Amino acid sequence: MASGKQQPETELRGGVLAGNGSPVLWGWLIGLVVFAFVAVPISIAVRFATHPATQELFGGRLEEASSGGYSAFWWIVAIFLFAVPVLIGWGVAKLSGRTLAIIVGILALFFIAILVFGQLF
Questions:
Q1: In this model, does residue 18 exceed pLDDT 60?
Q2: Distance CA 84, CA 114 (A)
């Protein structure tokens, strides 16, 4: 070039799998992988929640539970399972101590709520 201005060379990067990949893209990727692992349990929980005859599959105390309580329990489990990939993806994208504490707190609350709700019905 005859002029004094030189164009800076743009370096191509490999995207999310490169060394300097975007944390948001890593969060989406990890969330998608986790969702692939929990897709079948989500569909099973929704199936249990929507079909009242599945209550007979669980013997003992669960047979005595009300149909509404049984259905509500499985809907809560399905919502929790659907939230897990979102929480993990968000945690990977933020990757800080505070974010990790928030995720652990939310998971603990869901776990305690499911245990308490399961004992009530």
A1: no
A2: 14
Q: Kindly provide the b/e burial profile for residues 22-36, where b requires at least 16 CB atoms within 10 angstroms of the residue's own CB.
A: eeeebbbbbbeebbe
Residue spans per domain, the chain: 22-120
Question: Would you mind telling me the total number of residues written for the chain in this entry?
Answer: 121
DSSP output for the chain: --SS--PPPPPP--GGGSTT--HHHHHHHHHHHHHHHHHHHHHHHHHHHH-GGGGGGS-GGGGGS-HHHHHHHHHHHHHHHHHHHHHHHHHHHH-SHHHHHHHHHHHHHHHHHHHHHHHH-
**pLDDT 10s digits, 50-76:** 887 777 777 666 667 777 888 888 888
Q: What is the pLDDT of residue 14?
A: 46
The encoded tokens of residue 97 equal: 């101590």
